[in-house]
Automatic annotation (TrEMBL):
Name used for this protein in its record: PleD family two-component system response regulator
Residues in Response regulatory domain copies: 149-264
Record carries keyword Phosphoprotein: yes
Lineage of the organism: Bacteria, Bacillati, Bacillota, Bacilli, Bacillales
Record keyword Magnesium present: no
Length: 267
């Protein structure tokens, strides 16, 4: 069903992320089209929904319009980049003659073009919004355009802030948590590309946090342990819990940055 919504960019990001993960779970992939449009009423939106639904390649289309940011979103469960591109041509031919399209249609297929993380989707939406006023065209999102996001879980405020500032200067989107429960809730809400965690965390310890992340149904959840624990048994237990790497304090920020680049593919 096509609907008109009123959302901030962050709320739109999380809503679109839910659609995409649901689409991938059902069909193995998910195509998305974002189009900056003039104010779209419910009647026009229903027409666009019917048009997309009548096309064989787009039979699972779900359309909604974000009234606050004036972006039309079309999600295709099981859609590939190729089939979504085809659908974007049809949608462009519908919107343009009615002078509704106000910029570039942004097209992507997940996970074909990029991993469906909060940072990738937020960047995708920002690209669509920034294209308003550009010549009408169709553009594709690539993995290289998607900024990586990192969640830092550490009870030490100084350590968290130091890492956060260094990573933000490198262009990463950074979230922070003081305990394991807060970190896991942030993980579920933001689906970051990478988690950096101390083992000695309140409420949920680092081992419990890692195992909780690994049990999550998404394919996100690469974890780097950053800890004061130097014992081999702690290191083995962290890897057994599902950690991807292990760094000991005192912190070498250059070593940590290299490991983050390797795990997120941001070389």
């Amino acid at each position: 069903m096509a609907v008109v919504i009123r959302n901030s960019i962050q709320e739109l990001t999380l809503q679109l992320l839910q659609y995409i993960h649901r689409g991938i779970a059902k069909g193995g992939s998910c195509g998305v089209i974002l189009a900056p449009c003039a104010k779209l009423n419910s009647g026009m939106l229903e027409q666009a929904q019917e048009l997309m639904g009548n096309k064989e390649a787009s039979s699972s289309a779900q359309l909604f319009y974000d009234d606050s940011n004036q972006v039309l979103c079309a999600v295709f469960e099981g859609g590939t980049l190729g089939s979504t591109h085809y659908a974007s041509l049809i949608l462009k031919d519908f919107l343009q003659p009615q002078h509704l399209l106000q910029g570039q249609l942004k097209v992507s297929g997940f996970p074909e073009s990029a991993q469906p993380t909060e940072s990738a989707i937020a960047d995708f939406i920002q690209q669509a919004i920034r294209s308003r006023g550009d010549a009408v065209d169709i553009r594709f999102l690539t993995a290289a355009e998607a900024a990586a996001s990192v969640l830092i879980a550490d009870p030490d405020d100084i350590v968290r802030q130091f890492i956060k500032i260094r990573l933000q200067l490198k262009g990463y989107r950074v979230y922070e948590a003081q305990d394991g429960q807060e970190a896991y809730e942030l993980f579920l809400g933001r689906l970051p590309d990478l988690v950096i965690t101390e083992l000695n965390l309140p409420i949920l310890d680092g081992y419990q946090l890692i195992r909780s992340i690994q049990r999550h149904e998404s394919d996100e959840g690469k974890v780097i342990v950053l800890t004061d624990n130097h014992l081999a048994d702690n290191k083995s237990r962290a890897y057994e819990s599902g950690a991807a790497d292990y760094v000991t304090k005192p912190l070498s920020i250059s070593e940590l940055e290299w490991k983050i680049k390797r795990l997120t593919g941001t070389h």
